[in-house]
Design a protein that fits this description.
The chain is α/β, with parallel strands linked by helices. It has 14 helices and 14 strands. The strands form 4 sheets. It has a 5-stranded mixed β-sheet with strand order 5-4-3-6-7. A 5-stranded mixed β-sheet has the order 10-9-8-13-14, with helices on both faces. A hairpin with a 3-residue loop joins strand 3 (95-101) and strand 4. Helix 12 packs across helix 13 (343-358).
């Protein structure tokens, strides 16, 4: 018996085409996107940003209020005219679930329309096993939904699935038994997960999902174009151009971990071998120490010592070369570095990368800002959960980056 709900009415609506219904749904999504972007907006501000008439905006906002997606705040009196009423997202207006498949753990995360994490379930493992992940998805979902009211369950818009691509190609780095790696080769995880639930399952590369999380939930607005490096067991990345995530024809665009960078042994190697956490894990274990604490978000890394210092220096040099290559091709105005690591370690990595960048020739490359990511350990799970919100409620277009002034 399926434990998940039917798709919400809003999620079932077809917003494609140029029909009157399609245009209305597009405008509703546009208003929701702008409110999300700015936090709170009045009808007058929405009319100015969208170019829609005041009457049209009023109709849209009234509809979004009636469906429970936005709520009115306290009237704010200005110098002249009627009080301004700001509208914000109604967090309980919609929910979404994210499922992250990592090299050391799997996670299910429930978030609301505002992106706040409501509940989560984790499972640790030595290697990701396909059938065990299906069992985890089913049991974990039941626990996530156990205490949710029925009307809230009906507002779940889908499940986003963040998983590494071509898992079977990384046997040496994963250290997984050949039988488990081979099991992944012809296993359609998306299809198998979808069999367990009634709402849609949206797959995405795990690093791209992390990038989506930074785009949607960063603690400060990002530039409309930025490159994103995420350091997990393997380093990966994402690319945002004109406010939209670039996924490519197969969903594998911005595979930043595959960029060749100088190797300490001479020649070149992929960035994935220079700046991934599996190399730090190996260095810790080579000293006869346990590395399990690395995969616990609540632990710090103060005890690592010299292996961490050496890893940071080597990783920063590799990332710096990759950053220059990406900036030369895309002309992004910002490069963001995030990862499954404590904030203090991330800050050290960004600083070391900045120093390494200063030593590289950047002639002919437009200037860009190097920034820290803001999501950290939760980026892939939260990004996966954002996928249904993108699909049903969000529009990523240049207009979202316009100011009000």
């Amino acid at each position: 018996m399926n434990v998940a709900p039917q798709r919400s009415e809003i999620a079932q609506k077809d917003a494609r085409g140029t029909s009157q219904l399609g245009l209305r749904l597009y405008n509703e999504r546009l208003v929701l996107s702008l409110i999300r972007r700015h936090g709170a907006l009045s009808k007058a501000e929405l009319a100015k940003l969208t170019g829609l008439s005041a009457q049209t905006v009023s109709v849209i906002v009234r509809e979004l209020e009636s469906t429970g997606l936005v709520k009115a705040g306290e009237p704010q009196r200005g110098r002249v005219g009627q009080p301004m009423v700001p509208f914000t997202l109604q967090p309980d207006g919609a929910y979404a679930v994210g499922m992250k498949v990592g090299r050391k753990s799997g996670e299910l995360m429930l978030i609301d329309l505002a992106g706040v994490v409501r509940a989560r379930q984790r499972q640790r493992y030595d290697f990701p096993n396909p059938m065990q992940l299906i069992k985890f998805a089913k049991a974990g979902m039941a626990k996530l939904l156990k205490d949710m009211p029925e009307d809230a369950v009906k507002r779940i818009s889908g499940l986003g699935l963040a998983t590494p691509f071509d898992m079977w190609n990384w046997g040496e780095e994963l250290g997984a038994p050949p039988k488990i790696l081979e099991a992944w080769r012809n296993f359609d995880l998306t299809a198998e997960v979808a069999k367990e639930f009634d709402f849609p399952v949206i797959p995405c590369n795990d690093a791209t999902a992390a990038c989506a999380s930074e785009l949607l939930f960063a603690d400060q607005p990002r530039a409309p174009d930025f490159a994103y490096f995420y350091i997990g067991y393997f380093i990966g990345g994402g690319l945002v151009m004109n406010g939209s995530i670039v996924q490519g024809r197969s969903g594998n665009a911005a595979a930043l971990g595959s960029i060749p960078v100088p190797s300490t042994k001479g020649g070149a190697e992929q960035l994935i071998r220079s700046a991934s956490l599996y190399t730090l894990e190996a260095a810790i274990e080579a000293q006869g120490k346990d590395s399990d604490f690395m995969w616990n978000p609540d632990d710090d890394w103060a005890s690592i010592g010299k292996p961490l210092d050496e890893w940071l220096a080597h990783a920063a040099k590799g990332i710096a070369h990759a950053v220059v290559a990406v900036a030369a091709i895309t002309e992004v105005s910002e490069v963001v570095i995030d990862g499954a690591m404590p904030n203090a370690v991330r800050a050290r990595l960004v600083e070391a990368t900045s120093v390494a960048l200063a030593a590289l020739n950047q002639s002919g490359i437009s200037t860009f800002t190097l920034s820290q990511g803001s999501i950290g350990f939760d980026a892939r799970s939260r990004g996966a959960a954002s996928l249904p919100l993108f699909a049903n409620f969000i529009i990523d277009r240049d207009i979202l980056f316009k100011g009000i002034a």
